[in-house]
Amino acid sequence: MHLDNHTSQASDLLDPSIQGQAFDDKNINPEFSKKYFIESYGCAMNFSDSEIVASILAQEGFKSTTNEKEADLILLNTCSIREKAEQTVRSRLANFNKLKAKKPGVLIGVLGCMAERLKKKFLEEEKIVDIVLGPDAYRDLPNIIATAEGGQKAVNVLLSREETYADISPLRLGTNGISAFISIMRGCDNMCSFCVVPFTRGRERSRDAYSIVAEAKDLSQKGFKEVTLLGQNVDSYKWLNPETNEEVSFAQLLVMVAKVDPTMRVRFSTSHPKDITDEVMYAIRDYHNICKYIHLPVQSGSSRILKLMNRTYDQEWYKAKIDRINEIIPDCAISSDIITGFCTETEEDHQETMDIMRYSNYSLSYMFFYSERPGTLAARKYEDDVPLEVKKRRLSEVIRVQNQVAHELNKKDIGHTFEVLIEGNSKKSDQEFKGRTSQYKTVVFPKHENYKPGDYVNVKITAASPATLRGEIILS
Ligand code: SF4
What we know:
Blueprint: E1 2-4, E2 9-11, E3 35-40, H1 44-59, E4 63-64, E5 73-78, H2 83-102, E6 107-111, H3 112-118, H4 121-125, E7 131-133, H5 141-149, E8 154-156, E9 179-183, E10 185-186, H6 197-201, E11 205-206, H7 209-221, E12 226-230, E13 238-240, E14 247-249, H8 250-258, E15 265-269, H9 278-286, E16 293-295, H10 303-308, H11 315-328, E17 333-340, H12 347-360, E18 364-369, H13 377-381, H14 388-411, E19 417-425, E20 432-436, E21 442-446, E22 456-464, E23 468-473
Parallel strand pairs: 1-2, 3-4, 3-5, 5-6, 6-7, 7-8, 9-12, 12-15, 16-17, 17-18, 21-23
Antiparallel strand pairs: 10-11, 13-14, 19-20, 19-22, 20-21, 22-23
The site of iron/sulfur cluster has 12 residues, from helix 6.
């Protein structure tokens, strides 16, 4: 997923308005002298990693700030999923030139997927950068900072087959105190031909199941009401307990986390159509607090294009998974990722994509046109031959289909009552709350003095748009 958010292979489960937002933590001893400013881009995995980085920096006596002018260390946790994501980082770095001119001692560092993709080249291309650190090298941050403080540029982009940061408790940054991410695995063994993730995040490895349960317990004790289990492909989670030789599958892990606190919702992202099992679907069906929502990226509806994408399933297989989800969990919402204009895509292929969107009845989708990524299989083997204006026209057509499908779905919710977890004020009015159903649908409704963010409330739906449900509280 996006926890994309890659086309979003890893969908971004964070509210877009948080993208790039600096973090602040108030419970670090103000005596600590040095300050860091961190900004995260891309998928939820990157946001979760920034919380690991913050925890490591706190151990080193750093305190975070939201004002880059105050910082001794500025870190950008970068995304490389599309060309545009990298452009965003480059223009952000350009902003720091003036700041660096005024404060030559400030260190500028880049983390994440773009750092891993470019490695040392980043230093040549962006002279302002002092530190380049890949997603598996965050433990080395203290050494890297010491080297850079000594006036040398510092790089560590080694990928690991073991690293899961299981023993580092994330420092929750910019949190609403209600929802939190828990990273359950790192890397990806799939080799989708358009994707850089296997090159920037390395081979798959699953985190110790008991460290995940402990993190969920800690969050429950701190009053969090929702956790999202993160991985590029959570369905291939498999952890072998070295002491007992017991193997923990993703379905088993889901149940272990759900049992921690029945009042704490459990979500996860991202699933893969070739690996999702009936056992995962039964777990969702059988535990009220495992949310009735699955993000199941399809990318394309054409079996011919799916083959070129090396997605390892075809149209029939995907439709069979949709049928199985509807059979086992009838009230489950499904979302997806769509890429338009992949190499050699014809109007017929494009039509099949729109057909599978209608067939799957997606409640939402992350939709992008194909952006060739250097070093990927597709970049090496296929010509990026679909003209940009055709890619964009097809993108606007799938967005139209998605809005139609989502609106029809949401209209069917009118008159029904849903359990909603209040997340905070609605964007448009502080007289209204915003929250989500178990199906991950956004609901906006007038406030009531009995309730506050973090509470569950029953809301009767009175109106619907493609993206939002409106309703009124049903007092129990
Ligand atoms: S290689 Fe495929 S499954 Fe893995 S992160 Fe990329 S798109 Fe997702």
